[in-house]
Amino acid sequence: MSPLGTAIRRLLGGTEVEGSAERGTADDGAVQAVWNGAVLAESEHTVVVEGNHYFPPEDVDFDNLEPSGRRTVCPWKGVASYHDVVVDGHRNRAAAWYYADPSPAAAEIRDHVAFWHGVEVRRAPAEGT
Q1: Which residue ranges make up each domain of the chain?
Q2: What is the pLDDT of residues 101-116, one digit of tens each?
Q3: Residues 40 and 33: beta-carbon distance below 8 Å
Q4: Alpha-carbon distance 77 to 44, whole Å?
Q5: Domain 3-123 indexed as CATH 1.10.10.10
Q6: pLDDT of residue 23
Q7: For the chain, which residues score pLDDT lower than 70?
Q8: In principle, which of 1, 17, 64, 120 could form an S-S bond with 5, CB 3.0–4.6 Å?
Q9: pTM of the full predicted structure?
Q10: Is 54 exposed, middle or buried (0-12, 13-18, 19+ CB in 10 A)?
Q11: CA–CA distance, 65 with 82 (Å, rounded to integer)
């Protein structure tokens, strides 16, 4: 990470998770995002930043996501774009976000999707349970 990225994270109250992106591994087990009974994403390779699991795009079910016009700006990650989560006709507005063009300090989460607003991010059940 660049010295600038490290300094910004410290100023923002960085912790071990915030100070360096962590990757989930097969040893950690898969993590999934679930809302309204639907699994929106499942991966053994999330990147954890500021306590949020960012799912690689290949591990996200985009059938339940619809682009939203919402945009926000993070001082060190850049501009976030949002998706509404839609399951069985129920809409959770702007409950998923991603960084299409993140700053160099956040390059590892480019196009990865994170969730909030009631989407449960949890360890995936073990196979066969």
Answers
A1: 3-123
A2: 999 999 999 999 999 9
A3: yes
A4: 23
A5: no
A6: 46
A7: 1-28, 128-129
A8: 1
A9: 0.79
A10: buried
A11: 9
